[in-house]
Amino acid sequence: MTAITTPTHSEDKPVMCGICEASCGLIATVVNDEVVKLRGDDNHPNSRGFTCPKGVSFGYFLKDPDRVLEPLQKQPDGSFKPVSWDTALDDIGRRLNAIIREHGGEAVGLYLGNPCAWNYGAFLSLMGMAAALKTKHFYTAASIDINNYWAVHSLIYGNFQVNPIPDVHRTKFLVVLGANPAVSHGSMLTVGRVKEAMQDITARGGRVVVIDPRRTETAELFEHVAIRPDSDAWLVAAMLKVVLDEGLADTAALARQTVGADFLDGLVRDVDLARAAQETGIAQTTIVQLARDFAASPAAALYCRTGASMGQFSSLTKYLVDAFNIATGNLDRPGGYVFGVPMVDTEQVVKLFGLAGYDRWRTRVDNLPEIAGTSPLISLPREIETPGKGQLRALMVCSGNIASSGPAAQAIDAALPKLDLLVAMDLFVTETSRHADYILPATTWLERDAWPVFTSGHTAIPYAQWTPAAVTPRGQSRDDAWMLDQICRRIGIVASPLAAAQWAGKLGIRVPTQLMADILLRLSPHGDWFGLKPGGLNRKKLWAKPSGIKLADSLPTGVLAKHIYFSDKRVHLDQPLIGSEMQRLLARSSIDADYPLLVIGMREIRSHNSWMHNVPKLMAGADRTHSLRIHPDDAAARSIGDGDEVEIASRHGSVRVKARVTDEMMPGSVALPHGWGHAGGWQRAVAAGGGRYNNLTGNRPEENDLLSGNAAFSGIRVRVERVDGARVKTPELETAAA
Prior knowledge:
Elements: E1 10-16, E2 25-31, E3 34-40, H1 53-57, H2 60-63, E4 72-74, E5 80-82, H3 85-103, E6 108-112, H4 120-133, E7 138-140, H5 142-145, H6 147-157, E8 165-166, E9 173-177, H7 181-184, H8 194-203, E10 207-211, E11 223-225, H9 232-245, H10 251-257, E12 258-259, H11 262-268, H12 273-280, H13 284-296, E13 300-304, H14 306-309, H15 314-327, E14 337-338, H16 346-352, E15 358-362, E16 369-371, H17 380-385, E17 394-398, H18 402-405, H19 409-415, E18 421-426, E19 438-441, H20 453-456, E20 463-464, H21 480-491, H22 499-506, H23 513-522, H24 539-544, E21 549-550, E22 571-572, H25 576-587, E23 597-602, H26 616-619, E24 627-630, H27 632-637, E25 645-649, E26 654-661, E27 669-673, H28 683-687, E28 716-722, H29 731-737
Parallel strand pairs: 6-7, 6-17, 9-10, 9-13, 10-11, 12-22, 17-18, 18-19, 23-27, 24-26
Antiparallel strand pairs: 1-2, 2-3, 4-5, 4-19, 8-14, 15-16, 20-21, 23-28, 24-27, 25-26, 25-28
């Protein structure tokens, strides 16, 4: 008998990596609808062939035996049983309708997780669904590490989507505050081959200064200034004071570009340089010289990111960073602080759809300001547990693991089972989705088309890209946008903020997210305007060139007025809310004898948030253990040796991990990678052990950033002890556990 063989069909398909903001171009080698290899795309306008270990390993997710590939329904004993899509969706619709009838759409909540930033369909659907429900319970990963940006940009530029970035390719002096681009590959600053781009600055005679409590992989390459965690506002305020007091400010630029510049003098009047040195751990002479050198540079940019965005005063810090760039004349200047060229004008889109706003309403329980129609995640447990009108009763979580990654994670973990309905759209049974009534199987970015609209606005080399799916979805997995539309159909709404869309929905007309995205692209400044601009962009054109199309060789300058959404077209520096935060900073004590160390989170090259620990290749090696980085002096004072088990305790909780004694840490500070300490059904991740960093954090408003509701994860006060026999509980920990 002759054996029947299946013809082999192999094809190289350009795709976009959907793991982090770098959005690198990849080539997927696909054989018979299976991804057999991923490698860097040399033709990508931004990444130019670069990729990291995570990107090339992502194909494993398609075949991971722990992956959820059919709808799962929670059973009375806590286990999950596969059910049909109709069974799951019909029951979800029935239960949501019951909640809405009794409590209104305001009782239904949505959570938009970090991977949704690379899933435009889910992103548009979640925003539209929240608007259609008229719910204030719209939570996003932005309130973990970026809401401070949105708050400040709303206040001083008039639109949260306005985002100046360092002109890395032309700058002479780059200061990096609380960021590690060599590992993160850039955040709110997308630079292809970012390490090489930064090295080019020094190669052309410029300087790069990295300010961080840890001698990071980036700091190893350049000048490193160690700083105490969560003292970033002190440093930038002191530098701004030096510039103003010594007459180094660019007064012409301030007069031309801003209103309320006099506010800056009053803001930093009470900032004492000696105290700033004490608070930051940086010598006063170093602070002064750094400010002078920056002001004297012909082109300079100060850039801050997650380390500075996750402190108790992150909005104040972000305001000071922008004010410092502006006061030194570097805003909208070549080599300074410039504006990106997105393929879709997101500033205008959010304005058009009424999504741009700040403090238009306040949250029910904590009285915190909304940002772009969202509430901060720190409030979620109290919104579930506090009775009354508007109580959160149902929650749909899209690509999020908030029981691990959220602030005061143990509080979220305890609150989720109290919901009347929890639906999770995910790839795995995670720490969060294990509490769900239904887990709906989602697609990966290899199984759907990709459109990096989120990152295009802060890309150093402007480009446009839209790639088709590389392979068909595995099992019964579906795109999140499809799931959300199906749920919306069952509760009688359309996932859109437009009243016209709701009326059209009643007539059976629903615009697919892919078509909506194409319309936005075609009507953008780079679009084809439906044939009126023959050389413009549309989805069909980009799909034909899936490696991407470069839009410009560099970023423009002289465009500030276009990015200001006040009628006077000037940056509004006079902000009383910022003044109040400065007074709160000045009044804060930085001494706590019971918890003498300060902990920061850190990203590892083979991890990303909480969802890469189930990939064998990324977990191989003896070093893939959850370890606390601690300085030799701090270790010796506590009789801690390298590899010892230690307990890290804050006033909120504790975790146990191994110690890694290293002089990369600033004395008095320790670093613990985030995203470990798994539970649920992803077996390798669970077996990896470790502790949840976020159990050390708190969620009370006063412990976090008041202006944005941004969670404070950096600079948490802790005590570290070597584990010897029985653990000694403190009264604070017993209270937290109770």
